[in-house]
Amino acid sequence: MRYFLELCLKSVEAAIVDIDAEIIVIDNNSPDDSCDMVKQLFPSVRLLENKENLGFSKGNNIGVAQAKGEYLCILNPDTIVAEDTFTKLIYFADSKENLGIIGCQLIDGKGKFLPESKRNIPKPKVALKKLVGDAKAYYANQLKIDDIGEVEVLVGAFMFLEKEVYDAVGGFDEDYFMYGEDIDISYKVLKTGCKNFYFGETTVIHFKGESTLRDADYAKRFYGAMQIFYKKHFQQNPIFTGLVWLGLKLASTIRSHPESVQTTSYRSYIYSIGIDEALKVQLLEKMGQWVQKDDLEGMFSWL
Asked: 197 and 52 in one domain?
């Protein structure tokens, strides 16, 4: 994660040149030299070092408690923002009343749009459809990728909002260790009468999957988070709740095996457009356990 964080901080520093802003990094007991890197390369960044991994929700709440700005940007370390991202969002935010959370267009490292950038509330019927492979109603497909408009749920990798709004809903619910907390806070903000917006006119790169091992542990955490969400917000109907529990359990069982795409933050690779076929075959053999052939081809053409 150290290299992703360095890229992220460089992009944020470039994006706040003309803005009165501060950067706060929360480290949840990283096993690498991320903290040393921040101290050496980014002396103006405020670094808060936790002695243990407190999870996404608690880590962010600790950071926000120290923040002094009117606006907050919750940002994953494996992201890169554009130089005009924050200026565009501040201008947009200042033009709105009853504003909740703003999200933007997230793309992965190969330029592919990430549909979780804009989502609908995963009510039981919607969630059950998604769990059986029909995600049409789960994502906010009513908005195009480049659109600007109201949306219900935004992704925790990038959330822009007023600190006053964050504090009013109690920040991220610390019952969620990882996954689901973005759905929860989006829903809590909506219940206050504020409006969440998707702002598709700025793009942020999110190296999705680089820092997440999608295996049985991932499935357990993700579906466990969904159980917390339904228990908090949708337990009024016992029959529907039972069906959701069953669907989540089934999906968790299906997802208990590692997915075919696995990458980890401590591996680095250098690619070249002019790479020869023999070397490409050798790389594919070495990396086959982490990436699929189609993804590997895409990496060669992208870099």
From this structure: yes
User: Same domain for 167 and 70?
Assistant: yes
* C-beta separation of 75 from 41 below 8 A: no
pTM: 0.77
Nearest to 180 by CA among 130, 108, 230: 230
Per the structure, the complete domain to which residue 86 belongs is given by 2-206
Helix (H, G, I), strand (E, B) or coil at 31: coil
| Residues in Cβ contact with 30 at an 8 Å cutoff, skipping those fewer than 6 apart | 1, 2
Contact, 74 vs 101, CB < 8 A? Answer: no
Question: pLDDT digit string (tens) for 124-143?
Answer: 777 667 666 677 888 999 99
Strand partners, 197: 102, 150
Give me the helix-helix angle, 181-191 and 216-233, nearest 10°.
20
Provide the 8-state DSSP code for 258: P
Helix (H) or strand (E) run with residue 135 in it: none
Lowest mean pLDDT among 2-11, 51-60, 168-177, 280-289: 280-289
Q: 301 with 156, same domain?
A: no
Give the position of tokens 């029909």.
Answer: 134
